[in-house]
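Support reply, case 0932

Customer input (verbatim):
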Amino acid sequence: MGFNCGIVGLPNVGKSTLFNALTETAAAEAANYPFCTIEPNVGRVAVPDPRLEVLAKLAGSAKLIPTQLEFVDIAGLVRGASRGEGLGNKFLAHIREVDAIAHVLRCFEDGNITHVEGTIDPVRDAETVETELMLADLDSLERRITGVQKKAKGGDAESKAQLAVMEPVLEALREGKSARTVELPVEQHKILHTMGLITSKPVVYVCNVEESSAGTGNAFSAKVAEFAKAQGNTSVVISAAIEAEVSQLGDDAEKKEFLESLGLEETGLARVIRAGYGLLGLLTFFTVGPKEAHAWTVERGSKAPQAAGVIHSDFEKGFIRAETIAYADYVAAGSETAVKEAGKMRLEGSDYLVQDGDIFHFRFKA
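Our regenerated output:
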């Protein structure tokens, strides 16, 4: 399953520095000039989950395999991007392809790093980018709706269903509201998804602050948090400069010591990754044994056969049942054998809804 989160924002806000730290590579050139990232860089990162280490220790697993999330570093947008300014059309096309958006905002003062707007105002920057994305969506829908209306009048059922979604979304965009603000019945969400609208995607605002504010945030990030809350979105505080330093350190012990010296319990990247994971409506289940402890990803609302299919398509096709243990029960018992003896292992069928932290052993027919 490929779930990805696009890193967007104005030029010189720290997007490529964040991406480099996320992937612990120098794949994205972090330069002090606009458009240093022309083609989107893609990197897969492990989703931090302490439960995996706990399970591996209890099961004596020789190997740990975390679940992963894909991040895409997309070049900086500028005013007029929706009209093609600053290679805008190409950048907007890249954003359409991601599942969620991590919007990086500059929340620090630094006279050595140019800001395209001349001053530091992250809320203004957020609104600038959001406006360009809404204009791009508005243009996209206005170009398509006439044809859909004609087909709908002719009795085409699919076009009627599309029109029922397009009209309220178009109305919202014309009023300066994003597509994600439109409340639609659950059955219409799939139709909205097929339209490829950028502003229908969930957003987390990543506040890039100076090193001294990495733990607590600053006045800029506080304004962003207030702005995000009003929109029903979330925000995360990081210092891309610190994350870049941490990513270059040798081992986990060295990283932990460095973070503690700054008064930090974990990296900001861990928060960004978890926020992206949450935005996508994902949950984690596990398979555990002596060879490996493996974390897997499914969409919330998935049933047991779908989870089995994430591991191998044959598991889903021939699904019989899922031997299921809740994470808390496994930890409390201390082993799979002890869980069975305590009567805490359940046999779940094809209608079982996967719960976050479930530990599965799938039975299937070849």
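We compared this against your earlier run and they match. Two observations from our side: Residues 122-153 form the longest helix (32 residues). Residues 26 and 145 are 43 Å apart (CA to CA). Please reopen the case if you see a mismatch on your end.
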